[in-house]
């Protein structure tokens, strides 16, 4: 096997700079996403964004039994207060019930900024909050240039926009890969009950089907191996799982592989899937369409295995192997 080193035109590093507010007056509400009694990693990235802004940061934790999560988030650097909204109506993260709660909190406590991770949860809830407050939602930010000025990718990451908002309240979702996770400190902020809000929503939670996996989580894995249409079918993904097991990697996929039914859509990486930036990304049988690159081009080292030397994935790859994947993957797995 021979690997060729490619140039690295993809390495547009996330923009992250600390904005020192002048006696800022900023006051942020951090919406805490949590699951099974633990804070979701995306919230810790959003917290770093809020810290970069400066000013007070109040975390809000809503749920049927939010106490454990409230205690956990309180430990993080920069949290000045924790609002606890305990109500069974908040147990299932329904945006129809959460949005009025966040609006009430903003109205009573006058936050200048509301932050959440740019996850399915954040994307679901925050635009509603923005609409109810009659302000624009500023989504998927990768940088903060000031209290009203934010950086965000557009056109599937092909252009970077710097947007200035004239709204009095900024409702923001944060791209997790652009901000490091916040760290814990010797923190002991006050806990308060969140303001009461109307929980009589129009929608009702019926049930959910979650894919359970013992593998590393795609969003936080340091190594990711993804398969595309070139894998030919779902059974062949076993080759990628075997390689992933050797190096403790998560497995992802292109949309073509998901649409063809090879794997579940929770594995999809790209513009309409997950955005990842692991230390190592191995793309197997993936052509490198811009919509796929939008989800992985900030990975530190990109390896591509493709039998077509002209495949666009090689333009962003640090290491490229022009080879039939059915020969290359088992050989590589054996050598790892
Ligand atoms: C609005 C919109 C949103 C989209 N969002 C996403 C998204 O989030 N994520 C995403 O991935 N796509 C997305 N797409 C789809 C995207 O445009 C591409 O169609 C898709 O990424 C192609 O997937 P692929 O590379 O697996 O398939 P293909 O483009 O078909 O490439 C398959 C590759 O496998 C190689 N190959 C085949 N057999 C072998 C073999 N035996 N050994 C080695 N190599 C082999 C081929 O040379 C080829 O390069 C989106 C498209 C649109 C319009």
Mean pLDDT: 91
Which architecture name of the largest domain does CATH use? 3-Layer(aba) Sandwich
Bound compounds, please? flavin-adenine dinucleotide
Question: Which structural class best describes the helix and strand composition?
Answer: alpha/beta
Order of helices and strands: EEEEHEHEHEHEEEEEEEHEHEHEHEH
**Strand order in the sheet with the most strands:** 8-12-7-2-5-6-13
DSSP summary: helix tally:
9
The unreliable regions are 1-23
- What count of structural domains? 2
CATH class of the largest domain: Alpha Beta
Helix content: 25-40%
At the third CATH level, what is the topology name of the largest domain? Rossmann fold
Q: Hey, roughly how much beta strand do the residues contain?
A: 25-35%
The CATH fourth-level homologous superfamily of the largest domain: HUPs
Radius of gyration (CA) equals: 21 Å
The largest pleated sheet is described as: 7 strands, parallel
Number of DSSP E strands: 18
Shape descriptor = elongated
Kindly describe this structure.
With 336 residues, the protein is α/β, with parallel strands linked by helices. It folds into 2 domains: 2-193, Rossmann fold, CATH 3.40.50; 223-335, TPP-binding domain (Rossmann fold, 3-Layer(aba) Sandwich). The chain is 25% helix and 25% strand. It is built from 9 helices and 18 strands. The chain has helices at residues 41-53, 67-74, 95-109, 120-133, 237-247, 255-259, 290-293, 313-316, 325-335; strands spanning 4-5, 27-31, 34-35, 38-39, 56-63, 81-86, 113-117, 137-141, 143-146, 149-154, 159-164, 170-174, 190-193, 223-227, 250-253, 280-284, 301-306, 319-322. A 7-stranded parallel sheet has the order 8-12-7-2-5-6-13, with helices on both faces. It has a 6-stranded mixed sheet with strand order 1-18-17-16-14-15. The two termini are 13 Å apart. The site of flavin-adenine dinucleotide has 27 residues, from helix 6, helix 7 and helix 9. Flavin-adenine dinucleotide is lined by residues 228-230, 254-257, 268-273, 285-287, 289, 291-292, 295, 306-308, 311, 324-326. Keywords: Electron transport, FAD, Flavoprotein, Mitochondrion, Transport. This is Probable electron transfer flavoprotein subunit alpha. Heterodimer of an alpha and a beta subunit. Its main location: mitochondrion. FAD binds at residues 229, 254-255, 268-272, 285-292, 306.
